[in-house]
Amino acid sequence: MSNSFDDIEQFDEDFKSKTQLKREMEALQKLGAKLLDQKPDFLAKLPLSDKLLAALEESKRIKQREAKRRHLQFIGKLMRDVDAEQIQQALDRQEAGTQAYIQHFHKLERWRDQLIDDEAQITPFMAEYPEADRQHLRQLIRNARREATQNKPPASSRKLFKYIRDLDENG
């Protein structure tokens, strides 16, 4: 038989203040708000209830500010029944993937800019992308430089970037 002191300790561990409950609900609402911006194919991969998916879809139709706020509260309430941690991890992975993609894209842009600015950059570029056609690369660089000096639209610069991106994707 347990004494009343053990029951009090158990009660204290399970007890959450009204403020703590409110913070948890706000966190679920924020997580739900992040889901509003996601594409349907991404949402389909998440462990979401049909009711929550319907609420997320319905939120697109709501225009009034107060109605949106109430609907977001409703989404937060529905979020209580899902694995919020798993959803947060999936969102974090997607965001990290997006950041990684942006950083990689900037790396390719830097290669293009370096190649146009300095012909000596062809050697390190060829070391990283040995399957590149040196002659074709030089031609694209030459055309991009010519366009830059004549203040023409950067069509060749775009072609150079596309060539670099294709090498990167296929290499």
UniProtKB/TrEMBL annotation:
GO cellular component, one term: cytosol
Keyword line: Cytoplasm, Ribosome biogenesis, RNA-binding, rRNA-binding
Subcellular location: Cytoplasm
UniProt superkingdom: Bacteria
Keyword Secreted: no
InterPro entries cross-referenced by the UniProt entry: DarP, DarP_sf
A GO MF label: rRNA binding
Keyword Heme: no
GO terms (BP aspect): assembly of large subunit precursor of preribosome
Role summary: Member of a network of 50S ribosomal subunit biogenesis factors which assembles along the 30S-50S interface, preventing incorrect 23S rRNA structures from forming. Promotes peptidyl transferase center (PTC) maturation.
Family from the record: Belongs to the DarP family.
PANTHER family listed in its UniProt record: UPF0307 PROTEIN YJGA
Protein name: Dual-action ribosomal maturation protein DarP
Source organism (scientific name): Motiliproteus coralliicola
Gene name of the encoded protein: darP
